[in-house]
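Technical annex B. To support the medicinal chemistry partners, we prepared a structural model of the target in complex with iron/sulfur cluster, based solely on the information shown next.
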Amino acid sequence: LNPTPMLDELESGPWPSFVTGLKELAERTKKPMLRGVMDQLEYSYQTRMGYWKGGLVTVKGYGAGIITRYSMIRDKLPEASEFHTMRIQAPPGLHYKTDTLRELCDIWEKHGTGLIALHGQTGDIMLQGIEADKVQECFDELNQNGWDLGGAGAGMRTGVSCAGPARCEQACYDTLEMHERVMKHFVGAVHRPEWNYKFKLKFSGCPNDCTNSIMRSDIAVIGMWKDSIQMDADEVKAWVETNGMEKLVNEVVNLCPTRAISLKDGGIEIDNSNCVHCMHCLNVMPKALSPGKERGVALLMGGKSTLKVGFNAGSMIVPFRKMENEEDIEEFIDLADEIIDWWDDNGLDHERLGETIERVGMKQFLDGVGLEPSIDMVTKPRDNPYFKTKY
Amino acid sequence: LNPTPMLDELESGPWPSFVTGLKELAERTKKPMLRGVMDQLEYSYQTRMGYWKGGLVTVKGYGAGIITRYSMIRDKLPEASEFHTMRIQAPPGLHYKTDTLRELCDIWEKHGTGLIALHGQTGDIMLQGIEADKVQECFDELNQNGWDLGGAGAGMRTGVSCAGPARCEQACYDTLEMHERVMKHFVGAVHRPEWNYKFKLKFSGCPNDCTNSIMRSDIAVIGMWKDSIQMDADEVKAWVETNGMEKLVNEVVNLCPTRAISLKDGGIEIDNSNCVHCMHCLNVMPKALSPGKERGVALLMGGKSTLKVGFNAGSMIVPFRKMENEEDIEEFIDLADEIIDWWDDNGLDHERLGETIERVGMKQFLDGVGLEPSIDMVTKPRDNPYFKTKY
Amino acid sequence: MSSPERTWKTVESGPYPYKEGLHPVVKKNYGKWKYHEYPRPGVLKHVAESGDVLYTVRGGTPRQDSVDFIRVLCDVADTYADGYLRFTTRNNVEFLTPDEEKVQPLIDELESRGIPVGGTGKTISPIAHTQGWLHCDIPATDASGVVKALMDELIDGFRGMDFPNKVKIVTQCCELNCGGQGDIAIIVKHTRPPRINHENLSEICELPKVVARCPVAAIRPTVVNGKKSLVIDEEKCMYCGACFGACPSMEINHPEYSKFAIWVAGKNSNARSKPALMSLVAHGLPNNPPRWPEVGAVVKQILDAYRKGGRPWERLGEWVERIGWKQFFEETGLIFDEDMIDNYRHARTTFNQSAHVRF
Amino acid sequence: MSSPERTWKTVESGPYPYKEGLHPVVKKNYGKWKYHEYPRPGVLKHVAESGDVLYTVRGGTPRQDSVDFIRVLCDVADTYADGYLRFTTRNNVEFLTPDEEKVQPLIDELESRGIPVGGTGKTISPIAHTQGWLHCDIPATDASGVVKALMDELIDGFRGMDFPNKVKIVTQCCELNCGGQGDIAIIVKHTRPPRINHENLSEICELPKVVARCPVAAIRPTVVNGKKSLVIDEEKCMYCGACFGACPSMEINHPEYSKFAIWVAGKNSNARSKPALMSLVAHGLPNNPPRWPEVGAVVKQILDAYRKGGRPWERLGEWVERIGWKQFFEETGLIFDEDMIDNYRHARTTFNQSAHVRF
Ligand code: SRM
Ligand code: SRM
Ligand code: SRM
Ligand code: SRM
Ligand code: SF4
Ligand code: SF4
Ligand code: SF4
Ligand code: SF4
Ligand code: SF4
Ligand code: SF4
Ligand code: SF4
Ligand code: SF4
């Protein structure tokens, strides 16, 4: 290995070091690409500039899934003149059998550098560092073992789901199952992007939103209940015995955003018609309080990053739908298809769903996709007179 | 009088009727213009359309102050072919001696219809109904008696001030005096409008804002204090004795927007560093609580109606300035001049100050008028990365 | 003094001097008031640091007053208030007296002359109104008439003090201008684009000004019958009428294509919550002179629900904030519809960007 | 099967099937969990309706893992977790076991291998990071390095559970893209307009795409040396770098003209308050590899103030909301400046449109 003095400074300290990982991997495997990448990264640290540029590599029949990188300083550091990433769709919920992971590692080490990001921000397994001419064979082997490429470009992107029913008492629907089925439906749109821009789906089992879906996906599927919070009065009492009345008032009653909780008989009473399903009280007292029995999902739309209207949080479009069986999932898919069609028809180039809705108008959007307007969609009715209507 | 069946329906009912007033006035004075106006108004009620159009009438040396109205149906109803309004600047605080008012009535009845609006939304006395060729003589007589025209068009508008120190314990500065002096300074700009658009000043003695200045003036001058709320502990106790502890908690403590009030020793304690000067507690307990001793004004800028960005509330620009003497008023005037200059230089046609600030940017505005930025100006620092700065 | 008729100079004096109109007790205690109380509806009692007491009796006016009416007010002031009176920023008249004994006779006098006494404290103060058909050149409805008709219905609210807090109502006789923010607002709404009077337009209109006035850039210059004129992109136009304010040839007004809309939850004061803009909650109500009963009915529905549900000191918008807009629509029986979803410049900031939802 | 080498068909299978990776206890109690507890930092205890118990031990990873590192994780999982493991949405690794006795040995094993255990409950979870110089084509800084350097400093926060609530930190290696909202965000900020590489541009660039990408319409087509190119209106441009994402000839990156900015008070969850966008509170910090100490220092100032002042369950932004931004700047020692006042599309909605002010 060439000297990498700046990177080496990232080897010390208690947090596991990606530099150490890289170095050990490079030393063991002797892959020149790894050495080259380290040299280039060191050079970036020295000069405070990046040196990759994009390109186009895909596998047969697909138009996306590989993030292509060619070095801009290949004359200087030729060993990493290519350094492509293969995005692989992870299992919903990110649960693995060790066998599966080992197999993945073996295949990847065979064709690529052996560097893997678990996981990308969108939820992909990112296999980082492969040459263009090895991509197809690597993919073929992966695909035979059940793996498929994830999204990139102007199409459907890889989904992500929270632990949900697998390990969480708050889950209001089966995030993993829905994620799997929905993404199977959209698999063509993942592989062959042809929309205005990217489209993301994320699945969180409840409004805690452990996948950050509201801020980061075009449709956020959030677990929701419609009836009353389930309360186990004995467990409430037990909680108060352990934690005290002061804590009950300060940390539960007083923190309910709509003051829907009041003290009653040494325990609490919840005015469920005023509960906004924020999750707070359930989070503090999970043994005593649980989501209601009539469970399903809320759909928020339009979440995205900064380009170009500024960061946009998704907003409530469908406050509640059942999500119990295949049919419910199919209905969701129909709606999503409808929405994507509308967006693809009405959107501009590089415009995300949220931007299109804002530009064209919520009313037009709702009309376009056949949804009913509801007060749940807004924090308040319009405060300016600029609307047109005929009577 | 001609029959006015629709208007007549507005004669019944407990609220004093402007129709009855009009009719009686017309009958007594026999002024044809009044009869014509009633006929035209009846016709408007019948056809649901307005029939006035504007024009241009002024007095010598002035360019504003008369709202000119010619009838569009003078062929049909010739008696009110003209119906101009003279806007007259009222005394700050709207206090009158009856002599003064009677004199005004007499002059007005002599030259015009005798119809007066007390007061217009901006604060003018509106003398409604005069012919163009009588305007000058009417004005001359008024002016000799101490009256002057108010604003109209693209210039400074008439000011308004709340009762303030004249009859209110909450007043943090002398609204009447400041109103009078400031409007005297701007008297030329009132009479000879030559800016981009109108500019309004309103003076409220405290954040209760009884002149609605924040919503309706380009510069809202709002009374403010900087030190602690003055509390008379005995009066607090007396209040609690009369009203009860429940009311204290429900109507005072719990309604403080920042929860700056807590119970203490049977009375209350105020965390003044967390008080946002909303006035609520002082309103509920005026005998026990008063504004602090270090008094002055806050300046909010940019308030206006709907055109064309949608209704705009003024926003905090200067959180505190002393306003105790002439010098303080002069300094305010200097600042206002500076701001108006900046706005007149940077604004577009028909663009109010608030719109210019929004379009050009608060930073540029502050730089332009030499004010320091402060966190008090915003509800939160920017949430988008679109700023430019050099280091 | 060049012309013989003119023996004086215009004095650009600005506001009429305020000192002259101050009641002696006001003058004496100017800036030294200590507190106020509400002895009864329509009456304020202010106590000064000196111990002096000042009673204020407040009465309603039509605002569009006749000199006769004003002379009556002066007579009353001379009899009961030492020859002084004032007006409020909301067109009420106020009589000030240090003399408690004069209060009741003063009230009786006013009421006997048809001037209702009230408007103080937690009450409906008179509706702030504008010019309307009586005088403005762009109105789509009347103002004085709407105010009179509504105040007739709301008189009990004016005379009582049993609302959760003050109720400030405003009207506006065109879609854009002079009314301010109120707990409730009654505003005309046009329902189709202006019809351009090309004949007129070419004669009187400053075209670029009109083009610039449109909030959504729906107006373009064109040529009609060989003359410069304008054309409206009806797709873009949302019937606001701003162009009509710039040029009367942009004919927006029409007896059928103008309806009423009701807005609520505006607030000017800083008490507790910040000043707030009002929101649309009903529209499509007929422009129905002389008494606009459909409008009055909706206003009353809203007031009833607020009076029932609001807690002490909660302004209308604060009540809604606490119970949520969904509940507001339920309690008032009004119907939320898609036009109530904002689609203007800051629309996004009004979307519910959260999973917070009530069922 | 037309070509002899290819004896299979590509299966467009989408996500890897999730069922295979579920631990047997998870499978059995799927959807039937009752509650969770935090036995100690880094460990979750989930109890099912059946009475089954599942322990989760959570460890930190560099995210940019080597196969060797992953194989180590697999070894640990085989020994202590029945051959199953999972990753969190924030790049932590989790080992699941029903067996309480295995918890401590598992922790010991992880720590001995340099994998810190923590990240549960009211803690600093690992910083969400992006690609940076390691792989992206538009970064102005690194990501993995920033994360590593900061996590070294924040390791106590990761291992403990003594913050008012969870602290979610994110980084972003260009000014616009992949990081999400966090309680604290560390984002690069360019400080001058792009320099256009006209040579390159004419060859590789889809000009209209670049023009369209600019949020403030600062880019216009032009001709340079007889070739189509672009020109930037430097007055309008606010150095966002969006154009560089569309075309690498819009050279925005520069070692000196890129600084760091710190943003706070973002929030994704709906717990108590709504999800919130983060606000700018510091900028102009040097882009100083390999350890960016100036950035770390500011982050720690913020964390210290929050840890001290926040009440239980208050997220960072909720703490600020309660005490007010003025107090935030005082407590953290950061300085508010004019660049922190919004001037973009919804700027007005962030102005203090009230007289509410603290002194
Ligand atoms: C790899 C990844 C960061 C990471 O290290 O985790 C990433 C990397 C890139 N993102 Fe991203 N984004 C990644 C998740 C995100 C997220 C988070 C998410 O998906 O939850 C966002 C915010 C949410 C959103 O979609 O808005 C995100 C918002 C963007 C944007 C801005 C989109 C917008 O509308 O504002 C761009 C710019 C663009 O698309 O033109 C972008 C563009 C890019 C590009 C393709 C830049 C480019 O033009 O080359 C980056 C490729 C880097 C590389 O070399 O691999 N990336 N990007 C993430 C994908 C990994 C994965 O597949 O799992
Ligand atoms: C008379 C009055 C209504 C009333 O009956 O009280 C009035 C009447 C008119 N207003 Fe107004 N405005 C009146 C107070 C207001 C107010 C309230 C205030 O000043 O506190 C506002 C809202 C605050 C503001 O300034 O924004 C107001 C906002 C407007 C606007 C919209 C301004 C904007 O920037 O959005 C216009 C339209 C324009 O200027 O082009 C306007 C235009 C007009 C015109 C001049 C319409 C026109 O183009 O002919 C009206 C003349 C009516 C007439 O025949 O006399 N009027 N106007 C008020 C002035 C009386 C007085 O001098 O005391
Ligand atoms: C006389 C008047 C000032 C003037 O110079 O003319 C006035 C006088 C007082 N106001 Fe006011 N306000 C007056 C218009 C206003 C307005 C503007 C308006 O009516 O258009 C507002 C803002 C309304 C809004 O927010 O939309 C206003 C918001 C207040 C408030 C805050 C109420 C709240 O909780 O939001 C108070 C505090 C209170 O009620 O105790 C207040 C309090 C008062 C007090 C108690 C102040 C005092 O100590 O003397 C006065 C008697 C109030 C009463 O009648 O109940 N005054 N007050 C105005 C009477 C108007 C009328 O005839 O109805
Ligand atoms: C494992 C994971 C889901 C997954 O599928 O991977 C997860 C798991 C749990 N989350 Fe989460 N959350 C996970 C990411 C998130 C995220 C997203 C993120 O980290 O980027 C959020 C949104 C953060 C935000 O608002 O910016 C998130 C917001 C919450 C909240 C709301 C906290 C709040 O008060 O705002 C809770 C409630 C709580 O803490 O009791 C919660 C609660 C929980 C519980 C207690 C749910 C349960 O009953 O099992 C889980 C253990 C929490 C813990 O570690 O303290 N989870 N949780 C994620 C672990 C991330 C990590 O490694 O640190
Ligand atoms: S989003 Fe809800 S259901 Fe999913 S892991 Fe988080 S707390 Fe559990
Ligand atoms: S879930 Fe949230 S809103 Fe509902 S009762 Fe609990 S704390 Fe209140
Ligand atoms: S604004 Fe304040 S000082 Fe002026 S009258 Fe109203 S309450 Fe009194
Ligand atoms: S004035 Fe308002 S903010 Fe200040 S203590 Fe009183 S109620 Fe609270
Ligand atoms: S609201 Fe409109 S129509 Fe009414 S007076 Fe004002 S400008 Fe004229
Ligand atoms: S009515 Fe309004 S939107 Fe329509 S053209 Fe006129 S100004 Fe434009
Ligand atoms: S944040 Fe920017 S530089 Fe970093 S990975 Fe995403 S697109 Fe690339
Ligand atoms: S850096 Fe941003 S603002 Fe400047 S030209 Fe490029 S896209 Fe436009």
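Notes passed to the chemistry partners:
Chain B touches chain D through 54 residues (CB under 8 Å).
The mean pLDDT of chain B is 97.
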